[in-house]
Write a structure and sequence with these properties.
It is a single chain. This protein has seven helices and seven strands; from the N terminus they run ααββββαβαβαβαα. With 201 residues, the protein is α+β, with helices and mostly antiparallel strands. Strands 1, 2, 3, 4, 5, 6 and 7 form a seven-stranded antiparallel beta sheet that branches. Strand 2 and strand 3 form a beta hairpin. The radius of gyration is 17 Å and the shape is globular.
């Protein structure tokens, strides 16, 4: 049986029992997390936090969903970007929420497993399948960076259907006054697309 992302989406809609069966099918071929740069499934690194000194023309936040490379369900990551003079762009933060341990933790994450706020190389290199970008103020930018530092300490438990990468994206969205979907048990690209629609963009 071939398990593709449409099958995963269908099982997510059916709930935990269906998704657990789907994950059990795919897990024998999944690789465990390995050292950074060694294979296509990578360990999670601390989030990028890079405040910019000097004049900034504007800031924006982007919620990006990438596909299934290096994971089973895909992933949502959040980045903030400072646009400097001449249009130069600097990533000031990059982060998401992961099961701590990589692919082998997915079965356990149905019930719950340790989680970590961070990023991996695929967040930088893989083209998003969906993205939602919003211009933010300097104050909103500072609030996001402060929240990432705080969330690294407080968000330590990951659950596939609720307390997942979509959940963290929703927290950040609401922090700066955006609307976010209530249903976190959906594929990342669907979650980002719904967030965009809720905010009329």
């Amino acid at each position: 049986m071939r398990l593709d992302r449409q099958t995963i989406a269908s099982t997510l809609r059916r709930g935990a029992t269906g998704c657990l069966m789907a994950l059990a099918i795919v897990m024998p071929t999944a690789r465990p997390a390995t050292a950074l740069g060694d294979g296509d499934v990578e360990v999670v690194r601390p989030p990028i936090l890079h405040p910019v000194q000097g004049p900034v023309e504007r800031y924006y936040v982007q919620f990006s969903a990438r596909g299934g490379e290096g994971s089973i369900t895909g992933h949502v990551n959040i980045r903030t970007v400072a646009v400097l003079g001449g249009g130069r762009r600097v990533i000031t933060s990059l982060f998401g929420f992961y099961a701590d341990g990589g692919a082998e933790e997915y079965l356990q994450s149905v019930a719950g497993t340790p989680g970590v706020v961070g990023f991996n190389r695929l967040d930088l290199t893989e083209r998003p399948v969906a993205a939602f970008r919003v211009t933010i103020s300097e104050d909103q930018h500072a609030r996001i960076l402060a929240a990432v530092t705080r969330l690294r300490r407080t968000e330590r438990w990951f659950e596939l259907f609720s307390r997942n990468c979509n959940y963290l994206a929703g927290r950040i969205a609401r922090l700066i006054g955006l609307k976010a979907p209530g249903d976190t048990a959906q594929l990342p690209e669907d979650y980002v697309a719904e967030m965009q629609a809720l905010n009329g963009r």
